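Recall the central idea of this unit: under ordinary conditions, the amino acid sequence of a chain determines the structure it adopts. In this exercise we apply that idea directly, starting from the sequence alone.
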Amino acid sequence: MKPTLLLDLDDTLLVNPIAEFLPAYLQALSSHLAPYANPQLVIQSLLGGTRQMLANRQPDCTLEEVFNEYFYPALGVSPLTLRQPLEQFYAEIYPSLNSITQPHTDAVHLIEAANQRGYRVVIATNPLFPRTAIVQRLSWAGLSPDNFSFALIPSMESIHFAKPNPAYLAELLGQLGWPEGPVIMVGDDRDNDIIPATELGLATYWISEQADTNPSDPIMPSYSGALGDLLPWLDSMSDESLQPDFKTPTAQLAILRATPAALDQFCRGLEPEDWTQRPAPDEWCATEVICHLRDVDLEVNLQRVNLVLNQSNPFIPGQDTDPWAEQRKYIEQDGRNALLRFFAARSQLLTLLESFTPSDWQRPARHAIFGPTTLHEIITIISAHDRLHLRQIYQGLQTIKTIRGK
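Accordingly, the structure predicted from this sequence is:
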């Protein structure tokens, strides 16, 4: 199976000294918006909105929505008033910031080779900018999406979480339908790239000359080296050694949080007929998948977790939930309402799981099918179930697009 490469952008594919770039960006944007608000207030509001994005944990709100909810009231200006000035800024002024950056000598060769090999390439930059700003920086690196194939370019319009939240990386994989095979996070920033990827259970490649990393550090990259050494290193590794391992509670919580975020993004682009269009007669449509996830959380997952928490080594009966799709006529239900109810149910589950102590994760139970088990193993099964159905809905929607020639 072909690898998925999650590639950071700034100071990985593009030389971009943030200590110079960020002040220049803030100065340029605040000056451009001076006719509408005091430049200092613009900067304060921008930074405040960015903090809100970094802290966001709501899977049904994109980062753009989170930013806008803070930025415009703080500035005292309506979004409609600034729409045209902001479009003008990114079209005419933002491009001048290119002078601060430099193309990375090995970046183009890496992406060319990855495309030729059929690798899935994701630009795993922190999605705190509009898409146009990220695409422009890719072009400054010599990597215009017009010339190279990228499976996903995240931005504030389409993503719900930000680095260093491991749920951000889980969301990227979720939006790709949880591709099978090796996954490698490549980045220069230990705190924003290497640690969250390791917490999610991904292989990591740290763009750093510090190959002699501290052996006592609990978070160690899979490898550390130059960008130009990435492909030779990949060639030296077995697929098995680069497979994700989502075994930790942190990884499972990230996946459970990313599932509603990925579903939210999938459903924002659906046409009315897409909700109930089955990709094949014997496969579920989007509404059926969402209803299934909703009811499993409400009637199975929440009940099982509470049972194990509140009883000593309880017996957990098996439950065949697949027949519910026909029995409950999921295809006739309102998909959007089902999605909102799933969001609410998943929020309850996450609130409960995040209150766990380390000993809670090891609480025992007896499962009708799996035998002796623990709460940790039960959550592992839930996160695997999430990945299965995100892959199902992603593949189904891709099939529908192909059939309709979209």
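The mean pLDDT is 95.
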